[in-house]
From TrEMBL:
Residues 169-290 form the Fe2OG dioxygenase domain. GO terms for biological process: small molecule biosynthetic process. It comes from Aspergillus transmontanensis. Keywords: Iron, Metal-binding, Oxidoreductase. PROSITE patterns: FE2OG_OXY (PS51471). It comes from the Eukaryota. GO terms for molecular function: metal ion binding; oxidoreductase activity. Pfam families: 2OG-FeII_Oxy, DIOX_N. This is Fe2OG dioxygenase domain-containing protein.
Length: 339
């Protein structure tokens, strides 16, 4: 089974049988590929387009203004602007040989509104309206993810609330990504990429792409081979399974490996010269996460004699910090190695 596109309004407003069919299609796609696409999901196209506009407005700010809301690299939840080189996805799945593989990317991260433990950083003086829009968009994404968890409960045939109760209060993060223009020769050197093969470490991730392309998921029947995720509708959302969901379901639903590399139309043109420059790329992602004190070992519903528990019972925040340390620690090593 390939990556499915699910019309989510059937789950939201359909009959019991229709809801079950939609939930099953969603879970089947997540299980087989680690990904699914949603349409008719309830987030208006105008809102998605506005998020892309705000994304571009933020990264168009002068470096000094972005630096006023810089995220200091640490294992803690990220808040504010991370400059190119602040993190690298290269070591999330395997050791980073030579510690020199980098991500060609900047990002701006937002946590729950009114989070007093890890407060957000906003460029309000230089970008009025950005905070107000982003907080509303955050709420819409969080609400959609809760509905997706309800569908996953039905599709996995587990009791109502099995996943939902682990996701409240919110601890998710909204991220605006910016991939600056980069030459083919730089990418072909093998030391930098827009995003190395990796998995995310929340429960699921919502991905809102622009039209530039480059997002790919790993073909599980041919490991190491990647398949483009082409945006076919401006309102569609690509969704991937992340590490915490794999842990909770004891590998019943496995995280989706993905990368950001060459857009499909360029990958098919090997004659292009090395000085050819890929245009900038923007994406917005919503990392849906378990609440911080939730234990994210294997849920008993997915454990039996044939499938004993595979994961240690630590809190979601402890797991987040463990993985973020890899993300920023590798970047620090890479910066030192190339200095």
């Amino acid at each position: 089974m390939g990556l499915a596109t699910v019309a989510f309004d059937i789950f939201l407003r359909g009959s019991k049988n229709q809801r079950f069919a939609a939930a099953k299609s969603l879970v089947d796609s997540l299980r087989s590929t680690g990904f699914v696409k949603l349409i008719n999901h309830g987030i208006p196209l105008s809102t998605i387009e506005k998020s892309q506009e705000w994304n571009k407005k933020f990264f168009d700010l002068k470096p000094g203004l972005k630096a006023q809301v810089i995220n200091p690299p640490s294992p803690q939840p990220q808040r504010g602007w991370s400059y190119k080189g602040a993190e690298t996805t290269a070591g999330l799945r395997a050791p980073n040989p030579g510690n020199v593989r980098m991500d060609e990317k900047e990002n701006f991260d937002v946590g729950p509104p009114n989070d007093t433990v890890y407060p957000n950083r906003w460029p309000n003086d230089s970008l009025p309206g950005f905070q107000a829009f982003t907080e509303v968009f955050y709420g819409q994404c969080q609400s959609l993810c809760l509905d997706i968890m309800s569908a996953c409960e039905i599709g996995c045939r587990v009791p109502e609330g099995t996943f939902l109760k682990r996701c409240v209060p919110a601890a998710s993060e909204l991220r605006y990504n910016y991939y600056p223009p980069v030459s083919l020769s730089r990418l072909h050197e093998g030391k930098t990429r827009r995003g190395w093969p990796h998995t995310d470490f929340g429960i699921i991730t919502l991905l809102f792409q622009d039209t530039q392309g480059g997002l790919e998921y790993e073909d599980r029947e041919h490991p190491g081979t990647f398949i483009p995720i082409v945006r076919e509708r401006p309102d569609e959302i690509a969704i991937n399974v992340s590490d915490t969901f794999q842990r909770l379901t004891n590998d019943f639903i496995k995280a989706g490996v993905h990368q950001v590399f060459l857009p499909q139309h360029l990958a098919l043109r090997p004659e292009l010269p090395g000085e050819y420059v890929l245009p900038e790329r923007h994406s917005t992602v919503f990392f849906f996460k378990a609440h911080r004190e939730c234990m994210v070992g294997s849920i008993p519903d997915f454990v039996n004699e044939q499938m004993p528990a595979k994961y240690d019972d630590i809190t979601a925040l402890e797991f987040h910090n463990r993985m973020t340390q890899v993300l920023v620690g590798n970047a620090a090593s890479a910066t030192t190695a190339t200095a």
